Amino acid sequence: MPFRNPDSMLNKTNIIEIIEDNDLVFEIKITECLAEKVFREENACDIGFAAVCFADYALPQAFNPKIKLIRDKTVMQDHKFCNHKYTISE
Q1: Are 41 and 66 in contact (CB under 8 A)?
Q2: What are phi and psi of 28, to 5 degrees?
Q3: Looking at beta carbons, which pairs linking 85-90 to residues 24 or more positions away fall under 8 Å?
Q4: CA 19 to chain centre
Q5: What is the pTM of this model?
Q6: pLDDT tens, 39-55?
Q7: 59-87, pLDDT tens digit by residue?
Q8: Which of 15, 47, 83, 85 could, after both became Cys, cross-link 32 (CB 3.0–4.6 A)?
């Protein structure tokens, strides 16, 4: 998983903290995001949310339809961090 690899592009362009990591839940907190910085500089965070953040829901299900993302905060929407909680149903 790219979040676990310190050399991955995600970890080189974002500040990510792993909150929980077990067989059923993988939760991360992102406090800095390169995409957010780029869209914010252009006063286009609404477009950034639609183009980047919203896609986060589809990506895990492309790998496994049992994976679900739960998130209610994003830096793109002026929160202090993004909370990504991936759960898998058995």
Answers
A1: no
A2: -130, 160
A3: 85/20, 85/25, 85/26, 85/27, 86/25, 86/26, 86/27, 86/60, 87/24, 87/25, 88/23, 88/24, 88/25, 88/64, 90/24, 90/66
A4: 13
A5: 0.85
A6: 999 999 999 999 999 99
A7: 888 989 999 999 999 999 999 999 999 99
A8: 15
